[in-house]
Amino acid sequence: MAKSMEQLMEVIDRIPNESAKPGEYILPELMAIAVAHEVRNDDIVFAGTGLPMVGIMAANFTNAPKATLIYESGICDGKTMHVPMSVCDQRAANQSSTLGGLVDTFGYYLQQGFVTLGFLGGAAIDKYGGVNVTSIGDYYKPSHRFTGSGGNADIGTMAKRVAYIILQEKRRFLERNDYTTTPGWWCWDHKTKEWKPKREVWKNTPFADCGPSAVVTNMGVYRFDKNGIIYLETYHPGVTVEKVKEGCGFELNVSKVKGETTHPTYRELFVLREFVDPELIFLPQKTEYPAAIQAIIDK
Amino acid sequence: MPRIRGESKTAEILTLEDAVKKYMKNGIQVAYSGFTGFNRNPVAFAWETARQGIKDLHVIDRHGSCCTWILNAVNAIKIYETDWMGWGEMAGKLDVNLNRSYLQGKVILEDYSHGAMAMRFLAGAVGAPFIPYYAPLGSDLYDVKYDALGKAGLRTGKNPKIAKKKFIQMEEPFWGDGDVVLLPSAKPDLAVIHVAQAGDKGTAKWRGVGTIDKEISFACDKVVVIAEEIVPEAEMRKLPEANQIPYFTVDAIVECPWGAFPSAVPFYYDYDAPFMRGMDAASRNETDMKKWVDEWIFGPKNWEDFLVKLGSKKLLDLRADSVTGYSTRMMRGKKPAPRMKMALSVARSGY
Q1: Domains of chain A
Q2: How many folded domains does chain B comprise?
Q3: Which residue ranges of chain A lie beneath pLDDT 50?
Q4: Catalytic residue among A29, A38, A72, A274
Q5: Taking CB atoms and an 8 Å cutoff, what residues of chain B touch A192?
Q6: B49 lies in which domain range?
Q7: Does B148 contact A at CB distance below 8 Å?
Q8: Nearest CB to B343; choose among A72, A80, A206
Q9: A288 labelled catalytic
Q10: 3-class secondary structure, B198
Q11: pLDDT reported for residue A287
């Protein structure tokens, strides 16, 4: 007989917290867990829909049990039972500390400086961590139009640390974006029409040191050096540094590569599959556990 | 900006048809309640607006929704001031048809950011002409060459609902806290707010997230409240701290059960993701779009008929649990929702 959720909960600590092998998990799972690893236990995280949300929910079971999750529609520290499909889903509001609206989340929490980590998506990114979610080509006659900012530009500039999850392709990893929705460590000073470090444009504001700290893609995990330029930290299993460079529209700094991205552990995969997204809304499929792990679950 | 009022409003109870007839006019500026296509969109009102052939709307909203999707499906939108032209998140992100209208030049699109739009409505709500906000300095959102309404020659001051500037970046004058952006308040002609309950005098409340619906209600000249149920005003006074909208802001109340479908009304019914995916699929080409419009917008005789067409099975699946406020029966992904006694992250990690 299938186990109840409560019975499955009792199994968590018996599942070995050791790396799964390639083939025992799928790429979205690796990415979701890479997201989880960005979260610290004392973080207040402002996250967007999709893998950021899934990864942070997983972190609440594993490496960051006390991290607080804020959803832009007005939800403060929701404790979900069922994975939300949107940041306004009533599922996300379950057991929340308070429930307000956008003025609460963007004003009282974000502009007031409470948010320590923003986790966002992006359509294209430049080498300074500037993100484009607006348009490709001429703004008024775009060859491709995306949804536009949403909360990206606000969260991406006012959270202390900002992490992005992006699909990496040569045309999405750029020297300079066609349109900068969310400025990275370098951006235009529209008053003087100069391309400048963000710290100068935001000089004296409380947010001058807030900005991108990590990027998770389907190929690797990236960070930013002291000049605000992106570098590769780890590449995912099955990907080579050469392949990563090919998926990059600029000369990528690979001098600081530490090696492969940590594989998700069996325990992390168990959390993700059984407790975060058992309805398979964000994860496209459920992969089988190795026999030894399945035996522990069934016991 | 404040509107000094000589006399107070008295909310009238109207049918959906009559409320649209009385309050929707060609070319007005309108804001809708809810959050994306998922939560408390006044869909029935937008649907009836489409049916009555209202045109040239200036929609000012922090993001797209089922309302903007439907209005654009019948080419009723002329100007769209927003920060996110998506509508359905995981059920169809970018509004494909709206994007088509934009690329064809039928719609003028003005981009802001989500926080910026919230602040603009907050300013409108408290009667402030503008509001300072930091984000996002250095973004192309605040490059004057990307001021779409200005480029279209609409920032002349002739239209009292369109600010003379998209923004002003200035040095913060009081504390020396760097540069800040001044944003014009939002003060549309009409707010359409979908709520759970309204008293027969107009006091209204919802459960779940508030998004910026309270701010919208105060920022707009006229307010139409669409309620799942109208109850005696005395009921609303039993737990007044649960209410958000005082009666004196409300012009009209419409009782319209399931009026937010396919978006959710927490504790009443859930969103219908498969239905929204169907809308998204239909919007991928103009033939399917037209078919969808004929079938779902102009096909039913009235909103009740629309619900009958959906069928009782659908409504049963979407009915919210009284404890969680959402449905645990409906299929959202590839597997059914598991049953559990409490949030398991709490069981494991506490608060």
Answers
A1: 5-298 (3.40.1080.10)
A2: 1
A3: none
A4: A72
A5: none
A6: 12-255
A7: yes
A8: A80
A9: no
A10: strand
A11: 86
